[in-house]
Design brief:
The chain contains two helices and no strands. It is mainly α.
Length: about 50
């Protein structure tokens, strides 16, 4: 995010860790796994009701 206070050139800026940026690299792994689990659950519910 942004840091509204001015930073002096000689000092290092305090970097805030963004929650979204910390987990976005896991999305290519998490989304297919979650989709597979969801499809398995929906298929089992469909078989149970049929």
């Amino acid at each position: 995010m942004s840091n509204p206070t001015p930073v002096e050139p000689g000092h290092a800026a305090a970097v805030e860790e963004d929650a979204v940026e910390s987990i976005v690299h896991l999305m290519p792994i998490v989304l297919p796994l979650a989709g597979g689990v969801l499809m398995l659950l929906l298929a089992s519910i469909a078989v149970y009701l049929a």
